[in-house]
């Protein structure tokens, strides 16, 4: 991610140079698109369209191929995400245990729909197929922390703790 203490112009210049360094590192190497996209996303937190165009121009790959890879793999994002990513498990065990109500409670609390980021860029809400914690259903993951045996009310309280960390 970019440093907050630099001006936007400085960040743009620095990030453009980092992007060019990545492209130079992989110049002429077959199968380099995935690592290029991964490294670029590490810098920006997502894959900005302007950078994808630069990748296309520098690598001579058509935008359709780059978008094909970026949209096929779930690890890549084409939109910025919030500081906190909330993943709600919707696997079978979590679904049966009420994950849909968890998602609805979060949508209401955060005033976003599934897949969206809050206006203040603090939270992104995502439904996922499985988090692999079936015995704790329903499960929510916030960033790298997993929380289980949730109810809509417990989930709202959990998110309130993350909101308080921001203040």
Structure description:
Helices cover 50% and strands 11% of the residues. With 167 residues, the chain is an alpha+beta fold. It has 2 domains: 8-72; 84-166, Glutaredoxin. The protein has a 4-stranded mixed beta sheet with strand order 2-1-3-4, with helices on one face. Strand 3 (140-142) and strand 4 (145-147) form a beta hairpin. The two termini are 21 Å apart.
Tag the structure with descriptive keywords.
4-stranded mixed beta sheet, 167 residues, single chain, Glutaredoxin, 2 domains, alpha+beta, 50% helix, disordered N terminus, 7 helices
Low-confidence segments, given as residue ranges, are: 1-9
CATH homology superfamily of the largest domain: Glutaredoxin
Order of helices and strands: HHHHEHHEEEH
User: For this structure, what is the CATH class of the largest domain?
Assistant: Alpha Beta
Number of helix segments? 7
Strand order of the largest sheet: 2-1-3-4
The helicity comes to: 40-55%
Task: Please summarize the sheet with the most strands.
Answer: 4 strands, mixed
Return the domain count.
Answer: 2
Q: How many strand units?
A: 4
Label the structural class. alpha+beta
Judging from the principal axes of the Cα atoms, what is the shape? elongated
CATH architecture of the largest domain: 3-Layer(aba) Sandwich
Q: What is the residue-averaged pLDDT?
A: 90
Strand content: 5-15%
Question: Which fold name fills CATH's third level, the topology of the largest domain?
Answer: Glutaredoxin
Radius of gyration, Cα only, in angstroms?
19 Å
Distance between the termini: 21 Å
């Amino acid at each position: 991610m970019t440093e907050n203490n630099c001006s936007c112009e400085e960040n743009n210049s620095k990030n453009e140079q980092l992007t060019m360094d990545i492209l130079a590192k992989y110049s002429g190497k077959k199968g380099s698109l995935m690592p290029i996209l991964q490294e670029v996303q590490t810098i920006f937190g997502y894959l900005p369209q302007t950078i994808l165009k630069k990748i296309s121009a520098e690598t001579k790959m058509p935008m359709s191929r780059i978008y094909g890879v970026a949209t096929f793999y779930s690890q890549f994002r084409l939109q910025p995400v919030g500081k906190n990513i909330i993943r709600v498990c919707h696997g079978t065990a979590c679904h049966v245990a009420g994950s849909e109500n968890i998602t609805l409670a979060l949508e209401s609390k955060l005033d976003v729909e599934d897949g969206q980021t809050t206006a203040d860029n603090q939270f992104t809400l995502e439904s996922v197929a499985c988090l692999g914690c079936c015995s704790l259903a329903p499960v929510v993951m916030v960033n790298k922390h997993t929380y289980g045996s949730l109810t809509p009310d417990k989930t709202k309280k959990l998110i309130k703790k993350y909101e308080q960390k921001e203040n």
